[in-house]
Amino acid sequence: MKKRSIIFYTAIFLTILATSCVKVIDKFNSNNLTVTFNNQGSLFLTGDKTVNPKDSIKFSYSVVCTQPMSYLTLTKNDTEISRDSVKTGDRMSASGFLKKLVADTIPGQYVYKVVARDNTGIYLGASNPIIVTVTADFNYYTNQRLYVPDTTAMTNKCYYNVASQTAYSFTDINSGGVNSNLIDFGYFWDPTIASGTTPKGNTIYNLAMSPVPSPIAMYNTASFTKNLTQFKVITTPTWANINSGGLLKAQGAAAFKTASANSVSQLAAGSVILFKTAAGKYGAINITYINAASPSKTTYMNFEVKLAN
Fold first, then answer.
1. CA dist., res. 26 & res. 82, Å (int)
2. What is the CA radius of gyration of the chain?
């Protein structure tokens, strides 16, 4: 008799457990929510959209749910960014939700969804995703290289154009048919003493630099266009934090509002330099590697460039 009772109650327990599990899974996996996104103007999203960093984006939506809702959330990449409680009388349908947001500064795709939950936090359903693609408002050029000038062949690539990511030699410009107005800056190793016994060393400059240091004086640039690119070494923001053209423009406008420099020296791996070209383009240079502290023609500098659109 005792054995039969144990079997009987065990069967009941397993039945209840199985039934309760089925209900939870069914409820969790179901989508009981219908969301309507309303078009109330050009900034309101009703479907996928491509925007610029920091553009204004807006959501206006109404919802209908087959299960009583307690609150609605707006999520971005499955992270809650806003929450609205649902009034008692609106548990099955609600409207008038308005969200005003700003697009991210970092380029990429961001998935927005409206999600409904009940009073215990159980998921009731979600809207179809709206994908906001943030486009880059700057160009990022890596693996760039310049050499110090060589005095004999004059074929070392020591000049640079940021728009085309192209390096030129003196010979390219002087007799190679390349227009000198393409030169935004040059690179050389300056032995001039900066302080004590420390030379100025690795230097980038525009061709209006005066007086002309001896390592580049042998290049006769009298007939060259001398673009007035301006430079400033910075420590903040860091290279990693320069992630938008808007930031480059803001930093550059502040840096060059009252002061400018035709050259910057004592550069090393990790140096970050803001610049403004003669055409008014803002950008930044990050020195990634310098192979020697020497004016030898084999000395070179590796760098990367971020240029605002």
1. 27
2. 31
H helices of the chain, in order, are 2-29, 170-174, 214-217, 245-255
* Per-residue confidence band for 22, with pLDDT thresholds at 50, 70 and 90: very low
Which residue, 107, 93, 87, is CA-closest to 246? 107
d(CA 256, CA 273): 12
Reported as a single tens digit per residue, the pLDDT across 163-205 is 999 999 999 999 988 999 999 999 999 999 888 889 999 999 9
| DSSP codes joined into one string, 154-170 | --S--EEETTTTEEE-H
E strands, 66-223, are 71-76, 79-85, 93-102, 108-117, 123-126, 130-134, 138-147, 159-161, 166-168, 185-195, 198-205
Which strands make up the sheet holding 138-147, listed edge to edge? 138-147, 300-308, 282-290, 272-276, 230-234
Return the SS3 of 45: coil
Name every residue whose Cβ is closer than 8 Å to that of residue 292 and which is 6 or more positions away in sequence. Answer: 298, 299
Least confident of 11-20, 56-65, 235-244: 11-20
210: left (phi over 0), alpha (psi -120 to 50) or beta: beta
pLDDT value at position 26?
40
Question: Which pair of structure tokens corresponds to residue 68?
Answer: 């009583």
Cβ atoms of 147 and 158 closer than 8 Å: yes
d(CA 94, CA 69): 9
> 100: which 2 tokens?
């005003």
- For residue 18, give the 3-state DSSP assignment: helix
CA dihedral 280, 285, 291, 297 (to 10 degrees): 0
User: ∠ CA(76), CA(80), CA(85), 5° rounding?
Assistant: 130
Question: Above 50 in pLDDT, residue 25?
Answer: no
CA-to-CA distance for 274 and 248, rounded, in angstroms? Answer: 8
